[in-house]
Design a protein that fits this description.
1 helix, alpha+beta, 2 domains, ten-stranded antiparallel sheet
């Protein structure tokens, strides 16, 4: 029974996210915007959500919240500033009980080469970092980097992307 409730909540959350994405894509461009709605899952649980944002002087901010069928609320606040080929993003996610996760990230692009760095700090103070870089030529891109977890464990990743043959 508990698993069914969790799945219903997850389904409602995913439906709300999809609804938000469609609303954002269909919305006319503007400096300030807001959206809200609700979704009822297959077992009758309702999830409500709201989002708002604005852009001014090279900085865009957005915030929002999602309240699930059990009344638990999650919120997000993000600020992104771009200038001279570099964008910096600062985000705070707050879950039930006020527990927060922060994410600070920077992406810098110079012609067909990019570099990305991110730091995530969990509710207990543990940090996760990612440093990556990549380049693109024609429609083919290669990328790679390192990831370091809160205990200092480090891993690497590499990949390619491009059109299907």
């Amino acid at each position: 029974m508990q698993r069914r409730k969790m799945m219903a909540g997850l389904t409602a959350c995913l439906a709300a996210t999809a609804s938000l994405a469609v609303s954002a894509m269909l919305a006319p461009p503007a400096d300030a915007w807001s959206r809200k709605g609700s979704v009822t899952g297959p077992h009758g649980g309702t999830t409500t959500w709201q989002r708002s944002g604005s852009c001014e002087g090279g900085t865009c901010t957005r915030s929002g919240s999602l309240t699930g069928p059990a009344g638990n609320t999650r919120s997000l606040q993000t600020s992104r500033t771009c200038s001279g080929g570099s964008c910096t993003t600062e985000s705070t996610f707050t879950g039930p009980g006020g527990r927060t996760v922060t994410r600070d990230a920077t992406v810098t692009r110079n012609a067909n080469i990019w570099e990305s760095n991110a730091k995530v700090t969990g509710p207990n103070g543990g940090t996760w970092t990612r440093a990556g870089q990549g380049s693109c030529s024609d429609a083919n891109c290669t990328f790679g980097g390192t990831v370091t977890g809160p205990r200092g464990n480090t891993g690497t990743y590499t990949g390619t992307s491009g059109p299907s043959p």
